[in-house]
């Protein structure tokens, strides 16, 4: 199968993720959409890696996974602490500092 | 498509030929990587200290480790620069991952000094009143406990402190040291995350106003992760365009001077959409980090909500690191594309300068005011970036060094002005501060004058250098806009000075806490650098000028 099709899929997944970040209101869901964007990047890396016939892209995919895992640790810690003090994980409720 | 056939042959020939009998060990130049390695090692050591040293002595152990590490790393940077690694011996190390050259060493030195000053403000323990006989700093007793809950009260009573901030600071610094020196896109991305993740956590750790602090952390985290996803997709597209992660190879492909063109590369090289979209997404991620309009939305909220020592450190050091990375991307990777990125950066710089200066006028909170001022300053620095001349690089380096010390000093002063609820950040409470404590008000006035770019302060020398470089680089209209927005910005800086010195102090106004020598040192260094760089900038301008050549 033509690897370019995987790029179209990656772009589609990335767009879905970005749209989700912009329209969803729950911090956890927003965060999951960011993870979807990172995975779309991974798919693009692997597809490009195959097109170019070098392994750089596949190596980067591993690094991205590790970074995404680290981000989950930090992100969930922050979101859970916000949820425990407010009993809400809505990003709209967090507006103490609006002008 | 011909590319797929080539890939299959690669896979099959690899299987048919001899299996890989040995893998050569990578060559790592430990000496030239010493500054980063020292800081990473100390950060790991800090985690161990957190695990094994008794709570009573942890603070002192962490302080010791952090101070020694930052000082040693700075000494290593100076030694490397003295050995000529910034000029004649500049080169690419660690198998092409890191560049050791003038701009990298200059920015690493700046970041390390800034981090040292920031560390002093982190360690300050005399500003808050003692809680149950224990001295407390600006960080939560126990970050995991819910604000106002019993477990928080217990933690405060037991005298807990979050000494994890010191290793977190060191991890962030290690990312910042790599960020401007990264020489391939993977290193750039990993450094971006290593510098960001600790900062997200640090933002959530304030002792007072914890809800606001957590809110700031969530906003910073979600927007930061969103921006880094865009950066990563940009990296993916640039990799797809050039078939390589290395800055030098990508630059050759962009220029069209690449030597051996495989069929797959010939195919993707012709696709300008990959290059343009990839470069745009990558630069967007960096502009988010420097806080340029239209990617600035996080700046005011995060600067206001984060603990003030963290805000000062973040505002100063992150900006230095991110501008370093942006310079390298634009000057080393994408010079062949400059006719495309220059107009875009023109627009970004103009909007950033004007929006930062105009919106700052309406602010009533001193930390938000400084946040918008930092946005305006990002615009001024971008004007130097656009110059695309050697003097553009050196002027940006000088501006960053000058700006970071002013910022960290200004936020250190903000930690001193306090009332019952902690820091009194509302501007109305600063009225008449100059009559109550003339010294603190005078010091803050010096910082504000430096922000405004009044002569005899470092702000003037920096702005002059940047605007001169921009004008010589053919961006004269940008200089006009820059001067206009400087004038707008000067209005609200002067307004704060007038408020401090020429209005009646309120009877229930805030008090100025007497800090320990730590914060005094931080503020003293800030004032000293501001005045020295303002009165006698020549030596430092020459230093930045000597350092202003990228290795490729």
UniProtKB/TrEMBL annotation, chain A:
Domain of life: Bacteria
EC annotation from Swiss-Prot or TrEMBL: 7.1.1.-
Spans through the membrane: 6-23, 28-48, 60-83
GO cellular component: NADH dehydrogenase complex; plasma membrane
Entry keyword annotation includes Transport: yes
GO terms (BP aspect): ATP synthesis coupled electron transport
Gene3D superfamilies per UniProt: 1.10.287.3510
Keywords annotated in UniProt: Cell membrane, Membrane, NAD, Oxidoreductase, Quinone, Translocase, Transmembrane, Transmembrane helix, Transport, Ubiquinone
Molecular function, one GO term: NADH dehydrogenase (quinone) (non-electrogenic) activity
Cellular location(s): Cell membrane; Membrane
Pfam family, one: Oxidored_q2
Catalytic reactions on record: a quinone + NADH + 5 H(+)(in) = a quinol + NAD(+) + 4 H(+)(out)
Topology in the lipid bilayer: Multi-pass membrane protein
Signal peptide annotation: none
EC top class, as a word: translocase
Keyword Transcription regulation: no
Subunit structure: NDH-1 is composed of 14 different subunits. Subunits NuoA, H, J, K, L, M, N constitute the membrane sector of the complex.
Function summary: NDH-1 shuttles electrons from NADH, via FMN and iron-sulfur (Fe-S) centers, to quinones in the respiratory chain. The immediate electron acceptor for the enzyme in this species is believed to be a menaquinone. Couples the redox reaction to proton translocation (for every two electrons transferred, four hydrogen ions are translocated across the cytoplasmic membrane), and thus conserves the redox energy in a proton gradient.
NCBIfam families, sorted: PRK05715.1-2, PRK05715.1-3, PRK05715.1-5
Membership in a protein family: Belongs to the complex I subunit 4L family.
The name this protein goes by in its record: NADH-quinone oxidoreductase subunit K
Source taxonomy: Bacteria, Bacillati, Actinomycetota, Actinomycetes, Kitasatosporales
Automatic annotation (TrEMBL), chain B:
Residues that span the membrane, as ranges: 32-53, 60-82, 102-123, 158-179, 185-206, 218-239, 273-298, 310-331, 343-362, 369-390, 396-417, 438-458, 478-502, 514-536
UniProt KW Isomerase keyword: no
Reactions catalysed according to its record: a quinone + NADH + 5 H(+)(in) = a quinol + NAD(+) + 4 H(+)(out)
Any GO molecular function: NADH dehydrogenase (quinone) (non-electrogenic) activity
Membrane topology note: Multi-pass membrane protein
Enzyme Commission numbers on file: 7.1.1.-
Origin: domain of life: Bacteria
Record's subunit section: NDH-1 is composed of 14 different subunits. Subunits NuoA, H, J, K, L, M, N constitute the membrane sector of the complex.
Listed PANTHER family: NADH DEHYDROGENASE
Protein name according to UniProt: NADH-quinone oxidoreductase subunit N
Species whose genome carries this gene: Streptomyces griseoloalbus
Gene name for this UniProt entry: nuoN
């Amino acid at each position: 199968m033509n690897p370019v099709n995987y790029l179209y899929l990656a772009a589609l997944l990335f767009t879905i993720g970005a749209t989700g970040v912009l329209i969803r209101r729950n911090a956890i869901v927003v965060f999951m959409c960011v993870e979807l964007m990172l995975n779309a990047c991974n798919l693009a890396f692997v597809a490009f890696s195959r097109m170019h016939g070098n392994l750089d892209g596949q190596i980067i995919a591993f690094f991205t996974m590790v970074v995404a895992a680290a981000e989950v640790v930090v992100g969930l810690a922050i979101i859970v602490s916000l949820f425990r003090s407010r009993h809400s994980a809505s990003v709209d409720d967090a507006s103490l500092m609006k002008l | 498509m011909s590319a797929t056939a080539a890939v299959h042959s690669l896979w099959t020939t690899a299987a048919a030929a001899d299996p890989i009998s040995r893998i050569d060990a990578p060559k790592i130049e430990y000496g030239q990587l010493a500054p980063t390695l020292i800081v990473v090692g100390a950060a790991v050591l800090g985690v161990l200290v957190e695990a094994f040293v008794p709570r009573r002595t942890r603070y002192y152990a962490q302080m010791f480790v952090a101070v020694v590490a930052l000082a040693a790393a700075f000494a290593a940077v100076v030694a490397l620069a003295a050995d000529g690694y910034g000029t004649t011996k500049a080169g690419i190390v660690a198998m092409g991952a890191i560049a050791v050259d003038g701009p990298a060493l200059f920015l690493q030195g700046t970041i390390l000094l800034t981090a040292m000053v920031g560390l002093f403000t982190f360690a300050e323990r005399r500003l808050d009143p003692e809680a149950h006989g224990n001295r407390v700093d600006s960080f939560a007793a126990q970050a995991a406990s819910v604000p106002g809950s019993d477990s928080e009260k217990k933690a405060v009573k037991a005298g807990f402190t979050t000494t994890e901030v010191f290793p977190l600071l060191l991890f962030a610094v290690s990312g910042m040291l790599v960020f401007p020196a990264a020489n391939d896109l993977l290193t750039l991305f990993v450094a971006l995350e290593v510098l960001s993740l600790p900062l997200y956590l640090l933002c959530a750790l304030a002792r007072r106003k914890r809800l606001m602090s957590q809110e700031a952390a969530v906003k910073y985290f979600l927007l930061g992760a969103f921006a880094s996803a865009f950066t990563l997709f940009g990296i993916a597209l640039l990799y797809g365009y050039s078939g390589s992660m290395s800055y030098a190879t990508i630059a050759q492909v962009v220029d069209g001077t690449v030597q051996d063109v495989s069929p797959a590369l010939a195919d993707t090289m012709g696709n300008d959409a990959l290059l343009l979209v990839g470069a745009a997404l990558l630069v967007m991620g960096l502009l988010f980090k420097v806080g340029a309009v239209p990617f600035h939305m996080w700046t005011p909220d995060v600067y206001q909500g984060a603990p003030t020592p963290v805000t000062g450190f973040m505002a100063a050091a992150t900006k230095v690191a991110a501008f370093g990375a942006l310079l390298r991307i634009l000057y080393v990777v994408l010079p062949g594309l400059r006719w495309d990125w220059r107009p875009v950066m023109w627009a970004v710089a103009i909007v950033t300068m004007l929006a930062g200066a105009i919106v700052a006028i309406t602010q009533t909170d001193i930390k938000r005011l400084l946040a918008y001022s930092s946005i305006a300053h990002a615009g001024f620095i971008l004007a130097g970036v656009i110059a695309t001349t050697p003097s553009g690089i050196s002027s940006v380096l000088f501006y960053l060094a000058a700006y970071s010390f002013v910022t960290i000093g200004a936020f250190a002063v903000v930690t001193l002005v306090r009332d019952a609820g902690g820091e009194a950040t509302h501007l109305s409470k600063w009225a008449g501060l100059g009559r109550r404590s003339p010294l603190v008000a005078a010091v803050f006035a010096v910082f504000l004058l430096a922000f405004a770019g009044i002569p005899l302060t470092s702000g003037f020398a920096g702005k002059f250098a940047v605007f001169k470089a921009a004008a010589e680089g053919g961006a004269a209209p940008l200089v006009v806009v820059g001067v206009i927005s400087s004038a707008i910005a000067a209005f609200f800086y002067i307004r704060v000075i007038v408020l401090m010195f020429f209005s009646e102090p309120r009877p229930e106004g805030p008090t100025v806490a007497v800090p320990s020598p730590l914060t005094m040192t931080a503020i003293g260094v800030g004032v000293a650098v501001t005045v020295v760089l303002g009165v006698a900038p020549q030596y430092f301008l020459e230093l930045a000028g000597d350092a202003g050549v990228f290795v490729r």
